[in-house]
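call fold(seq) -> tokens
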Amino acid sequence: MSEHITMSWEKTTEERFNKMLSKMPIFHRHMTEVGATQKAEQNAKTRGSRTVEEEDLMRAMFSEVPMQFYSLMIKLLDDVGFDYKKYNLPR
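ret:
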């Protein structure tokens, strides 16, 4: 993963995130990686955890990705196996 990560991540969450990033259009990839990584790590810290879990990343994706990219995000989340629906995130 990127040099932006400063915390440990659950292995499956990190693998799926990397896979998702690899499927993104190149011009969205870096922005998503940086923004989602920082927000996911902030979410984990807020929970008092040193490890980023799937829910931290899902909450980051749904709060940081602009509305016009939601359909692409949902497709990519589904493609790589993230179960975002269980977190009751806004759609």
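Residues 8-81 form one domain.
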